[in-house]
Specification:
single chain, 136 residues, alpha+beta, SH3 type barrels, Type 1 dockerin domain, 2 domains, three-stranded antiparallel sheet, 4 helices, elongated
């Protein structure tokens, strides 16, 4: 019995560690852009007074009217490949956003388009997304 309890605790703790890799995305009707928040940064998520309220561990709050939410989901995509445009899927739209960035921007520092994290936005980022699409 003792072994079963210890095994259960270990399994529960490992599941909690994996949860930190997930991101909560909320997509608003007005912009259709997803706002992402790492689960590790969220203290609690509530629905109150017609709003989705995200309470962060640092004490800040963010709320969105439920009527403005077109979609809300959890994803671990960022741990394996970048969902560059934040729509919840890794697809050719992400590639197009990278191409647009390469044409119109000069500073890749901190850019979500730098999928492979090498400090530059280039065809290597496109290839990483294509590789992800073909293998998933």
């Amino acid at each position: 019995m003792k072994k079963l309890i210890v095994l259960s605790v270990v399994l529960f703790m490992s599941m909690a560690a994996f949860a930190d890799d997930y991101t909560l995305y909320i997509v608003a009707n007005t912009s259709q852009q997803a706002t992402g928040h790492k689960l590790a940064d969220i203290q609690k998520l509530t629905f109150e007074n017609g709003k989705v309220v995200v309470n962060f561990k640092n004490g800040q709050k963010e709320s969105t009217a439920i009527s403005d939410v077109s979609r809300m989901y959890f994803s671990s995509l960022s741990a394996t490949a970048e969902d560059v445009n934040g729509d919840g899927s890794v697809d050719t739209q992400d590639v197009l956003k990278i191409y647009d960035f390469m044409q119109n921007s000069s500073s890749p520092q901190g850019a979500s388009e730098d999928v492979n994290g090498d400090g530059s936005v280039d065809t290597q980022d496109v290839l990483k997304i294509y590789d992800y699409i073909q293998n998933h």
